[in-house]
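Posted in: Structural Biology > Protein-Ligand Complexes

Title: Requesting predicted complex, nicotinamide-adenine-dinucleotide in pocket

I'd be grateful if someone could produce the 3D structure tokens for the following input. Sequence and ligand are given below.
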Amino acid sequence: MSTAPEVTVAPATGRLGILTPGMGAVSTTFMAGVLAVRKGLAKPFGSLTQMGTIRLGKRTDGRVPTINEFVDLAQLPDIAFGGWDIFEDDAYEAALNAGALKKEDLDNVKDELEQIKPMKAVFSKDYVKKLDGTWVKTGGTKWDYAQAVMEDIKNFQAENNVDRVVVVWCGSTEIFLTPGDVHANLAAFEEGLKNDDPGIAPSMIYCYAALKMGVPFANGAPNLTCDFPAMYELAKETQTPICGKDFKTGQTLMKTILAPGFKARLLGVSGWFSTNILGNRDGAVLDDPESFKTKEESKLGVLDQILQPDLYPDLYGDIYHKVRINYYPPRGDNKEGWDNIDIFGWLGYPMQIKVDFLCRDSILAAPIVLDLALFMDLAKRSSFSGLQDWLSFYFKSPTVAPELYPEHDIFIQQMKLKNTLRYIMGEDQITHLGADYYDYYR
Ligand SMILES: NC(=O)c1ccc[n+]([C@@H]2O[C@H](COP(=O)([O-])OP(=O)(O)OC[C@H]3O[C@@H](n4cnc5c(N)ncnc54)[C@H](O)[C@@H]3O)[C@@H](O)[C@H]2O)c1
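-- Reply #1 --
Done. Output follows.
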């Protein structure tokens, strides 16, 4: 049974601009994929907004619309693409270089991709040691660059006739930074922009510019970017949704699928060793210890939260968890991730599980970019602002309110996401209690 909607959702009329700082493997795979789907050349596999369904009401009601029918989302033909990069290559050239998609697939959408030319980046090698680009804004303070990004967004909107914009960070992983005084509140942060404070990384400048304009911002990398009080304050002030961080793909996706299962069956875990080889630009950036540290922090938290060693000390109190990423150029974007999992069961008898995931990172990440952009636009039209915990489903290291722990279990995350959609539309939450169908109590 549905009730009156809790939330008023402004209609998704007109065009939606999706801007990505960073037009590398993930971003161009996302763009090429949406363009191919739009032409009827491919199906949007992996995208919840395009292929997912949602059950409404009782199991006996038979109401299972697609998510796209259930909530008012921007439609693929209404999307315009744009972005920034430190290299001048258009999206076609960048996609060819990235090597995530085959040339023949890219050639089907070549004309459209060639039209997508990056705007000049806000960049400093101090924050991504392994990259050097020429297509960058120069000669200003961090404050000036923030104004310039706002100008870029306005120009993009005017040139592409778009009504709404969403920004999804698809740029490289920056060095590990921790929040300091400059991140503590908005006034300090704005002061820091004017004084070129070293605590302010380029990704933060894009995020500040977007939020200042009321443009939703999602962070696909593990960078600090929007994960501190000054940004939360700005997001509230301008009523803008933010979310992050680090797209959940590959090995961490597998971890958050497997670990909840072990815990559900009370199987102990004594060790989980994860190693990866990858050879794309992301791999080269992660070869730098400072960028790797940012990634490592993001990857390590997952098991601790899911397995709850404090609640289950006998099962998970002594777990040895290690994550390695090795840059290995021959593999390109086709990563291989190995997991060796040492588990134990009844009477403590040990067992081993080996996972060898021959994975394609950008193929897993591209539909996440699409879903995040569409859901962040929905959030904005629903007058949601600040951290969007319900989108934790898409992240390795979900950003949550300071007093909360992040939820990593993918099945809980999925329920949270779908229940948020039900809440927006005034539908009953689904608890899976099942008491409606049986006479348990009589
Ligand atoms: N592929 C995945 O599965 C996955 C999963 C989680 C997170 N990520 C993160 O997503 C990001 C993108 O991954 P990718 O595989 O596309 O990497 P990539 O190296 O192919 O692309 C990143 C692009 O960002 C550009 N860039 C760097 N700094 C910039 C700046 N300040 N402004 C504008 N552009 C900038 C680089 O020139 C590059 O073209 C990385 O941070 C990566 O860690 C990827």
